[in-house]
# Entry
Amino acid sequence: MLNDIIATLRGMSRDVWILCLGWFVSALGFAASMPFISIYFHREYGMTVGEIGLFFGAMAIVRASSQAFAGEMSDRLPRRSILIHSQTLRAVAFALLASVVFLKGGLGWMAVGLFFNFILGAIFQPVANAMISDFLPPEKRIDGFALIRAAGNMGWAAGPALGGWLAASSYGLLFIVSAILTLTSAIIVMAFLGNPPTITATDRFKMTDLLAIRNDKLLARHCLLILALYLVVAQLIVPFSIYATQTVGLSETELGYLFGINGLIVVALQIPITKLLAKTRLTTQLVIGSLFYFVGYSAIGFLSSFWMFACAIVTITIGENVMSPPSLALTARLAPAGRMGRYMGIFAFFVTAGWSLGPLYGGQILEHFGDSPRLAWIVLASLSLVSAGGYLLFRRPLPATLDNGSAV
# Structure
């Protein structure tokens, strides 16, 4: 196992490592501030969990659409340039959020800053995933997706701990640090990342191209199942943060440590878990990951201490490690030549829709079952069972050549 991991790391190209570094710094900037925005809304603007969920849900369609659009454009424009410009503009959006905090601006200005921030952040991910597919041959892509996830979650490991400390003194400073780190990510890509060889689409772009999912039933089924799963995954940012701090009584620093545990486990275990499951069917890996999510999130309503929450985070993170690389690898295998960006963009659309609508879904359930948090979190987690069952049935129409593990 150790020799396999070492061989995998050595087999990655310089550009893959540069892309991982850029993603790490970007994730560090994002993770330092985003988990604490819901707490800021709750304290400064007096918003309830349900209202915060509605706020983030209102941005869901535009934010998710931006990922599909970015994927489509990355089949036509230089992907490296898209990464540079999106990260630079996102740094400006973080600076705007810092100004709103320092000048004690209203919710409207905060919403504008977040609106552009989420859109620009959404652009980065499908383009970077498409570049992993450009830099690596098909047999190495699942390892590449595992590596870049580990790099991003290394940012998640350090970011929330830094953010929890900064948030205790100044939310404005928190956003300034995020702006600096995001701009640094753009500089890394601009200075060191090469242009990958790509098959460029030559047909004229049409808005209906964003609906290409209707022509691929396998992609449509995969995306709908991943949407159901990410509605559960998304509870980690808003509902989990507010429930852990406002209902259970954990401190912001402890919340930061929990996110740090999440990131550290991904860094430590992502590649070993991916190698361990290398001969396992992709759909089986997705079923296993979904079941881990159900167990982890269902347990939250029964917990009352930091260490109990830490155990739940460990369970949830193992689910992340199991399901994330195969979900991307399956998307890459479904993509025809010249459409890698489109397929990554469509997949990212549904992932982002889950992240965006998840707080609305979770907030409404937590408010509806306010007197019974145990039942609320079980209900919240139930969609992961839907995803697990769906991927189990997905084996039948999916060709074996697309479902086989990377080592088969």
Q: What stands out?
A: The chain has a mean pLDDT of 85.
